[in-house]
Amino acid sequence: MGHGALLLGHNPRQVADAVREQALRGTHYGACHEKEVEWGEWVCRLVPSAERVRFTASGTEATHMAVRLARAFTGKRHVVKFAGHFHGWHEGLEIGVRPPYEAAPEAGQLPEVVDLVTVLPPNDIAAVRERLAKGDVAAVIIEPTGGHFGSVPAPASFVTALREETRRANVLLIFDEVVTGFRVAPGGAQAMLGIRPDLTTMAKILCGGLPGGACAGREDVMSYLATKPTAEENRRAKIAHAGTFNANPLSAAAGVAMLSSVADGQAIRLANQQAAKLRHGMNEILARESVAWKIYGDHSDWKIFFGAGAPPRGGSDQSVEDVDWRRLDAKNAEQSRALRQALILHGVDFNGARALVGTCHTDAILGETLTAFEAAIRDMKEEGLA
């Protein structure tokens, strides 16, 4: 819900109160402020890799900053990403996200920029090793649970091997935790996996439902954002980063309220629990109705695999580890659109073939959702769409 930003639901009291109180004090100062510092302290307290943090106005800006930091720090130009992984819309990384997953320019993109990005198949450590051997890569960026928040799951063994290979090649590893940050664990996927990247990008839950983002990581890398003693040093070893609404007071107030609410992990565990119930119930319905789809996921999420070939066996979580990644990442637009339309007719709106669950999703709401899902499936079967 809320594109992944609303773990606590729409308008949670603690966030709303914090924003209301801050609005009475001022919405924009044009200067550093107390809440910005407190917000940064929460990030550094929770996120294992966060020795320093810099706030941005969006997740896209955060990944843009991370790539530029990596190039400045390493002196290298090339970046490696994985097919199907999304890292924002800027032309430096909005590459290879959709089929045919090529590193080719799309509308408005410069070939010279795209040529600096290598798109590798997900979860292929041999391909990573071969590409890093050329010695010209500044960074590898990854969604640490897999592309599109685990639609194509990334095994922990692969992410561990990726950390080892990047370290060996003196290449920075960037975790894009815009979705996973503060959702899969209070410290994000890196805390859950026990793997420390060099840089981490964040947004969504970070900002409590308001706009914003952040890049955090190693002090020596983040130091390229700091002002240097001389003009020459600033030209050579400083990245200029200005933005009117970076760490704006309203987002900072919402962010502090949100991070303090999820720090003990209780909200995350509840959302995970409710998502597991929903996945179980949806799979039971598919099994009963003999529909050859699978519902899968690992955290406070669920995804639909339309091309399963056979109905699920009961309601247990479904494994997709043996499915080719291209099939998992495929967007079945016709069925996804039909399902959403059918659900709306029964009073429920899903965001396509994947969605996120929050603490506001009570057992009663899950029951209503499953009733609507069953009715929608039957409607689709009548029309030959399921």
User: What is the number of beta strands?
Assistant: 11
- Specify the biggest β-sheet: 7 strands, mixed
Shape: globular
Radius of gyration: 21 Å
Helix content: 40-55%
Annotated CATH architecture of the largest domain: 3-Layer(aba) Sandwich
Between the first and last Cα atoms, what is the distance in angstroms?
A: 25 Å
Q: What is the subunit organization of this protein?
A: single chain
CATH homologous superfamily caption of the largest domain: Type I PLP-dependent aspartate aminotransferase-like (Major domain)
Kindly give the count of domains.
2
What share of the residues does DSSP label as strand, in percent?
5-15%
Could you report the average pLDDT, rounded to the nearest whole number?
95
Can you walk me through this structure?
With about 375 residues, the protein is an alpha/beta fold. The protein folds into two domains: about 260 residues, Aspartate Aminotransferase, domain 2 (3-Layer(aba) Sandwich); about 120 residues, Alpha-Beta Complex (Aspartate Aminotransferase, domain 1). Helix content is about 40%, strand content about 10%. The protein is built from 15 helices and eleven strands. The strands form two sheets. The chain has a seven-stranded mixed sheet, with helices on both faces. The protein has a three-stranded antiparallel sheet with strand order 9-10-11, with helices on one face. Helix 4 links the parallel strand 2 and strand 3. Helix 12 packs parallel to helix 15. The protein is globular and about 70 Å long. The protein starts with 12 loop residues before the first helix and ends with a helix. The mean pLDDT is about 95.
